[in-house]
């Protein structure tokens, strides 16, 4: 139910219906459009929406539906029901074409069984009586005329008529030629008068030929005469024509009688054609406004995403403009949205968009909104829009508004959608504001849902402090002083009255005088709203930049993890290969030793022989166990710099130079660090380095340098674990060019200190080691200085 009756018209629903009617092919389709009304049964709404969506899918993605002929056959069926009545040839032809359309549609969906379930339900259990079409086609031809072969008698009559016409024509031509030769005729040829073929004879010669005069010319000089000899033949033809008419009527009555038992089926066919035309028109309109089917919910709520006013959308598209989309939620927690903002900022359009789309959904129409939107069902829709003053009822504008408010309060509930434009307007703001606030409070207590537009500050404050009511504002660019037509939920909007007046050019002295006349509190509220708008815009921009950076960071982390996994996998492969090579070398060495021992035994440990065998053994072991690294000689010694990318010639691994120490290079491969001779690497161009590897190194180095501290505490640790951790710290400190490393190992009995220092002495990069000052820990701390 919609209250008042003109509410749908004010929301623009009548214009929607007119646009859909223009898409109909038949009168019965247009009649169905006229009857469109919002429904509140969930299942019925869902059925109509799915039908329209499926027909839209057919129009966009499938072959055209064969609905070329749609005739209103309901009246014809009513005519058939009357005993003794009959349909004309043209009416039978319309029935035939309509039924052929019905059968073609049914066949179309049978070929796509199960693809369009909602539309298939339209003709479910509908019988296909093709005998009706067959009977009509036996009588009516493809041009809508009765076939001469419709009955044997009719065929005989047609034959007789043809024969009589030939005989009459032949005799008439002969008489006309004789009259012409005698000079009795006037200018012209044979002509028809009163349905009879006549000869034009000069008036003075009319007695020279026996016959019947049917007419004369305006001057009286020419008479039109039917010769006596042809008169009998023409009478015979007329009698045959009467016979033909009587036989046709007999055949039509007989055919009508044959159709009479099928009247209920014919009415069902008429209903199917009407619905198909109706749904087709709705689907075409949905395509026009780029409408979709949202998720339907059986609760009084809505969640609109990317919603647009359909009429505004069509108008803007003609002008090459776009409509700013609307996003809004109305539910149990956020029941009533109070929209404020400047004049011409889009408040009313926002409210009308919400109301119109809700009516469209409950009328089974798709809406121009994102399909992820969710639309509920309201049992009552109340709207107070525009000026409803009435001279007849002696109601002023404000009185009309109050009458509606009374009705809203008395009849609204949890399933009511209330739409009020310019709430409280039309009277003294000093009294209109409090009355509007009281009405709003009453509607909120009744759990009504709705959208209300206002300029009143007390309503904004009330919404801010009341559960179930939410402030919203139409955004306004206070720099260029133009509305942005964007609805923002969560804060009220300023009217920007003084700012707009200043832009329009109202004199400054007038504006200053006006500012002095308004209350201090109102000034504060307006200034606060303007400042909030500015700050909100800045926060929005900052949040968008943060989200952008967060996205970039997530991408970098993902690439970092991917590269780490790649390097870890390569590391495992290289270690496995090295172990296999070591095992092979060890097997060869063991075999060589065994062979040497065997030969010594065979020579009875002869000194010379033994010396020679030991020499050979040493040579072979040196060759196998101390295998020199593969060196590629280059004619020109390459110059390397820290940060250069290089490729290790032996393995093809790409790494970055972290430090240069004479002929040695300290390379970084992900988390791994390695010391390699200069002659084992070659420079590689940056573009050959995988992008992920470059990002990984840039990120890792920056993070490592920023987070690394050249100090390690190993107190209480076992010797092996302490040395392992110290080795990692030592490598990082050397790689990052730190001059020293501080190791806190504690005093105890000095065993851990001794083991650590003995271990560090094997590093050639270690220049010296010293105890900490006695006041700061003494020999419980070791400082390691690098050369």
TrEMBL record:
Tagged with keyword Glycoprotein: no
Summary of the function given for this chain in its UniProt record: Acts as a ribosome collision sensor, splitting the ribosome into its 2 subunits. Detects stalled/collided 70S ribosomes which it binds and splits by an ATP-hydrolysis driven conformational change. Acts upstream of the ribosome quality control system (RQC), a ribosome-associated complex that mediates the extraction of incompletely synthesized nascent chains from stalled ribosomes and their subsequent degradation. Probably generates substrates for RQC. Endonuclease that is involved in the suppression of homologous recombination and thus may have a key role in the control of bacterial genetic diversity.
UniProt keyword Zinc, yes or no: no
InterPro entries: DNA_mismatch_repair_MutS_C, DNA_mismatch_repair_MutS_core, DNA_mismatch_repair_MutS_sf, MutS, MutS2, P-loop_NTPase, Smr_dom, Smr_dom_sf
Keywords: ATP-binding, Coiled coil, DNA-binding, Endonuclease, Hydrolase, Nuclease, Nucleotide-binding, RNA-binding, rRNA-binding
Domain Smr: 712-787
Stored SMART domains: MUTSac, MUTSd, SMR
EC number(s) stated in the UniProt entry for this protein: 3.1.-.-, 3.6.4.-
Coiled coil: 529-606
Originating species: Albibacterium bauzanense
Gene: mutS2
Protein name stated in the entry: Endonuclease MutS2
PANTHER family linked to this entry: OS10G0509000 PROTEIN, OS10G0509000 PROTEIN-RELATED
HAMAP family: MutS2
Amino acids binding ATP: 341-348
Subunit structure: Homodimer. Binds to stalled ribosomes, contacting rRNA.
An example Gene Ontology molecular-function term: rRNA binding
Family indicated by similarity: Belongs to the DNA mismatch repair MutS family. MutS2 subfamily.
């Amino acid at each position: 139910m919609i209250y008042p009756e003109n509410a749908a018209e004010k929301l623009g629903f009548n214009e929607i219906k007119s646009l859909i009617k223009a898409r109909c092919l038949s009168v019965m389709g247009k009649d169905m459009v006229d009857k469109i009304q919002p429904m509140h049964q969930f299942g019925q709404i869902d059925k109509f929406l799915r039908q329209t969506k499926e027909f839209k899918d057919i129009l966009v993605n499938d072959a055209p539906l064969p609905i070329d002929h749609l005739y209103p056959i309901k009246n014809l069926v009513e005519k058939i029901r009357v005993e003794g009545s009959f349909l004309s040839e043209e009416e039978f032809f319309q029935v035939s074409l309509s039924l052929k359309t019905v059968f073609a549609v049914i066949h179309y969906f049978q070929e796509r069984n199960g693809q369009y379930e909602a539309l298939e339900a339209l003709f479910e259990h509908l019988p296909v009586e093709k005998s009706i079409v067959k009977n009509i086609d036996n009588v009516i031809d493809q041009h809508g005329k009765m076939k001469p072969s419709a009955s044997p008698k009719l065929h005989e009559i047609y034959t007789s008529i043809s024969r009589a016409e030939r005989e009459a024509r032949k005799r008439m031509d002969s008489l006309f030629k004789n009259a012409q030769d005698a000079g009795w005729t006037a200018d012209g040829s044979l002509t028809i008068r009163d349905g009879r073929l006549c000869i034009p004879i000069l008036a003075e010669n009319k007695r020279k030929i026996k016959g019947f005069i049917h007419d004369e010319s305006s001057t009286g000089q020419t008479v039109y005469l039917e010769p006596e000899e042809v008169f009998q033949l023409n009478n015979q033809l007329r009698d045959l024509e009467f016979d033909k008419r009587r036989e046709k009527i007999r055949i039509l009555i007989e055919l009508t009688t044959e159709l009479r038992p099928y009247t209920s089926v014919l009415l069902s066919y008429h209903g199917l054609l009407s619905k198909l035309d109706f749904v087709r028109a709705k689907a075409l309109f949905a395509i026009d406004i780029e409408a979709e089917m949202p998720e339907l919910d059986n609760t009084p709520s809505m969640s609109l995403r990317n919603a647009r006013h359909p009429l505004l959308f069509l108008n803007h598209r003609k002008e090459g403009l776009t409509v700013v989309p609307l996003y809004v939620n109305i539910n149990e927690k956020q029941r009533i949205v109070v929209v404020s903002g400047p004049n011409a900022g889009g408040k009313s359009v926002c409210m009308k968009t919400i109301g119109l789309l809700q009516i469209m959904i409950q009328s089974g129409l798709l809406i121009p909104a994102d399909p992820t939107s969710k639309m509920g069902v309201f049992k009552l829709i109340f709207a107070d829009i525009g000026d409803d003053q009435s001279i007849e009822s002696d109601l002023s504008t404000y009185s009309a508004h109050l009458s509606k408010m009374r009705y809203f309060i008395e009849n609204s509930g949890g399933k009511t959608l209330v739409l009020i434009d310019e709430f409280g307007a039309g009277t003294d703001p000093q009294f209109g504001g409090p009355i509007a606030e009281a009405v709003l409070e009453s509607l909120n207590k009744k759990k009504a849902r709705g959208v209300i537009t206002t300029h009143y500050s007390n309503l904004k404050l009330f919404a801010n402090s009341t559960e179930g009511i939410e402030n919203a504002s139409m955004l306004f660019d206070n720099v260029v002083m133009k509305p942005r037509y964007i609805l923002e939920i969560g804060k009220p909007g300023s009217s920007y009255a003084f700012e707009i007046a200043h832009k329009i050019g109202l004199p400054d002295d007038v504006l200053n005088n006006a500012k002095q006349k308004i209350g201090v509190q109102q000034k504060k509220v307006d200034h606060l709203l303007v400042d909030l708008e500015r700050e909100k815009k800045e926060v929005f921009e900052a949040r968008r930049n943060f989200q952008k950076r967060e996205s970039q960071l997530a991408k970098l982390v993902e690439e970092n993890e991917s590269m780490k996994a790649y390097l870890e996998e390569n590391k495992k492969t290289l270690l496995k290969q090295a172990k296999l090579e070591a095992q092979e070398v060890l097997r060869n060495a063991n075999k060589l030793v065994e062979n040497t021992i065997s030969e010594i035994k065979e020579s009875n440990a002869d000194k010379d022989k033994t010396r020679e065998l030991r020499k050979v053994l040493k040579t072979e072991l040196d060759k196998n166990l101390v295998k020199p690294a593969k060196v590629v000689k280059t004619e020109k010694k390459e110059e390397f710099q820290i940060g250069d990318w290089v490729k290790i010639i032996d393995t093809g691994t790409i790494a970055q130079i972290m430090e240069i120490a004479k002929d040695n290079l300290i390379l970084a491969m992900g988390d791994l660090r390695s010391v390699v001779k200069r002659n084992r690497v070659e420079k590689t161009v940056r573009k050959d380095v995988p992008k992920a590897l470059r990002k990984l190194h840039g990120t890792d180095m920056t993070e490592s340098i920023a987070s690394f501290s050249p100090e390690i505490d190993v107190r209480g640790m076992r010797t092996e674990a302490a040395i392992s951790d110290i080795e990692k710290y030592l490598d990082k400190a050397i790689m990052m060019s730190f001059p020293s490393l501080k190791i806190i190992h504690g005093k105890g009995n000095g065993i851990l200190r001794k083991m650590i220092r003995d271990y560090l002495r094997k590093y050639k990069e270690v220049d010296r080691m010293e105890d900490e000052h006695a006041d700061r820990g003494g020999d419980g701390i070791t400082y390691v200085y690098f050369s």
